[in-house]
Give the backbone structure.
Amino acid sequence: MRTLLLALLPALPVLSACGDFFGDRDAHAPGTALGTFHVVGTQTANTCGEGALGATRSWEFNVELARDAGVLFWDNGASLVPGVLDEDLLSFSVEARVVVDMRTGDMPPGPPCSVERRDRVRGELGGAGRGLDDDDVTRFEGRLSFDYAPTAGSRCEDLVVSELSVAPVFAALPCTMVYALTATRTALPPE
């Protein structure tokens, strides 16, 4: 699953910064950098099936975070996804969607099938950072869910475990995988 998820995330649009058009600020690094965080995800729920899409019970990755007024920027190294930073300046949510063509046309083994994956992270920043002017965020905790569903008009029955499936990918579709996240800062933001 790690390889598939990291391969799919670049399909999301990259956000370019809008402020500081003529300054020396990096347009691809908006907001105030909080650092690089090593994240450990532990699977808490999975209706997609054991090992579906290569999913494992635990998953580790790195993410760079930055924040601005009302926005948390989640940079996985392949794309930069803006999220919402709540008024408490600690609680955040990030959402992204990607559609994957599992099969195109009417070529064997079946009719066209596309699956939409909706990623949702809800979490809370921790550490000394308690305001926009105090950026010493050293950790965060949260919940990451991946929701999979066939797009309208898709015929994906053969991807679900049944008597008719040749190479099933899912135990059920639509389905969800959920991970509890704990993250520790491993690198300070650049000065």
Notes: The longest helix spans residues 2-8. Residues 1-25 have pLDDT under 50 and may be disordered.
